[in-house]
Each structure stands twice: as structure tokens, then as C-alpha cells.
């Protein structure tokens, strides 16, 4: 579909929207953050992700909704990292102490360029100069959203750098499969045996810990409503010790007769149950989102890997190609 204007940024930049469709699935992507702004399945009257029909909320409390996050998703403690033996001082945009989601001008808040599009896919590009947010290396990124038979919504992220740097991307949609005000009646399954304990500032404490006996054990389907009023759910679940070439199943989310299977090349899954949401701007259904309105399932490397040598490495060497694939397959269960 032909790109259309979605809104104007404070600096005068134009945010564009492209809608792609196929196999009963329709997705709308905006250039701000290369974000998944809307997602619909044929025969269902509600959006499957949280989002806003206008630009303004994405500039405030709706920041990161559906965005492609980088160049380093999640956190790096104290905004410091040693790369090739040299210490680099990064943007400290979390409480002026830690780097979060690539810094104040990370990819999730930038207006990407439209590179290519057709009926079932759209590609966007971003360029980060050397020194951007304190990171070494000029980086070129390409994110492609595609709809495939299944139906599947697939995100492929490619990145290269001319110097050794850190590279860790994720997709930051909040899912809600039944259109209700809360994800309480959703069931989540994640095969992870371990998670990363964190301190009060969400910085990992070190080695992974077993999920057994904790509120983060999702190895069997768990009704989220049974966990939402307990300890906070905003942790990295450790799926593997390294990234993979071929995506494998990392999570299943189910509500009513609809299920989503998430597959990814990434070794970590940050689960975030939107405890922080307070009613603000109206979302897709015309009403503001409240606490626990959606759940983020962020496939990525483990957070703060520069300070934990045992974690999967985020180092990207000059000329090396970073490639991440994350696919969301939607299916109606029998009886629908």
C-alpha cells in the first residue's frame, strides 16, 4: 500500500505509515521507531497489539510501543562498556545512571527511512553515526516487516558497523489477543529454565537463577491473572547461551480461541506485564490503556552483557552482519 502521512514531529519531520496485508493478517507500520502501530486478524474486531491512532502519544507515554529498539536494547549498567579493550561512556537516559534502549536517541525514538514496500512487506532503514549515544562505529540498520502464510508476521533486522561495537535489537510490542482491558485471562508458556535476577534499578545481579519455585516459571501454561498481583514481571528469561541462525519457539500466548506462537533467533526473552501503564491517550479501541493492558515479549540478548562475560555476547565486529529473525504465528484453536 502507498505510504501515507501519520503525523508531524516537533522538528518538522514527517512520520509515514505503511499498511501491509496477506493471509488474513493486516499490519500497519510507522516510520517513527519502525513501529508496529496496529495488527489485525481477519474475523476479529480488535487490534492484537497496543497502539494509538494518532502520533502524539508515541512522543510521550506511548514511547517504544511497537518500536524496533537498539542499538542496544534493555540496559547497560552505569552507561559504561569496554569494547576491544577501550572503555566507552554511553548515554545515561535511565535516571541519569544507566543506558536504556540505546539512549535518548535510540532507534526506537528515531524516524526511520522507508526503503522499500509492497503488498505484504515493508523495509525501513536507519543510520547511526560513530559516537552516537556514545557507541563506537557507524551503524547501518535495516528492519523488514513481512506477512507470510500461517499467517505469520515476521521481523528481520540486519545491521553492520565499520568499527567494533555493541549490537542488540528487540521488538517492543505489547500484545493483547482478546481485546479486553487486561491480559489477566491470557495464558503464557515459555520454555526457559532460568532467569536473570535484578536489583531495584532493573540491572542484572549476575548469574542466572532457576525459575522453579518463582513467579517467572512459565514452563507450563500460566494464567497471567494468577501472577499479575504478585512480584513485578519485568525480567529476562534465559532461553539459550547464544544466538541461533534458525528461529526456534520461545513463547506461546493464548487468549480464548486465539493463540500466538513466537519464534526467534535470540537467546533471551524480556517479559514485561505493563505494570507502569496509567490511563492516558485513547488507544485503538477508543479508550485509554490501564495497568496490565498488554504484555511485551521482547526477544533479545541478555541485558547488561558488557559487564557479564558469561552472557551471550553483543559484540559486532567491523564488516560482520548482525541478523535477527522474530516471527509471530497466529492460529485459532479448535472449536473456534
From TrEMBL:
UniProt cross-references to Pfam families, sorted A to Z: Aldose_epim
Origin: domain of life: Bacteria
GO BP terms: galactose catabolic process via UDP-galactose, Leloir pathway; glucose metabolic process
Keywords in alphabetical order: Carbohydrate metabolism, Isomerase
InterPro entries per record: Aldose_1/G6P_1-epimerase (IPR008183), Gal_mutarotase_sf_dom (IPR011013), Galactose_mutarotase-like (IPR047215), GH-type_carb-bd (IPR014718)
Gene3D superfamilies: 2.70.98.10
Keyword Isomerase carried by entry: yes
Gene Ontology MF: a single term: aldose 1-epimerase activity
Family named by the database record: Belongs to the aldose epimerase family.
Protein name: Galactose mutarotase
Species for this entry: Paracoccus thiocyanatus
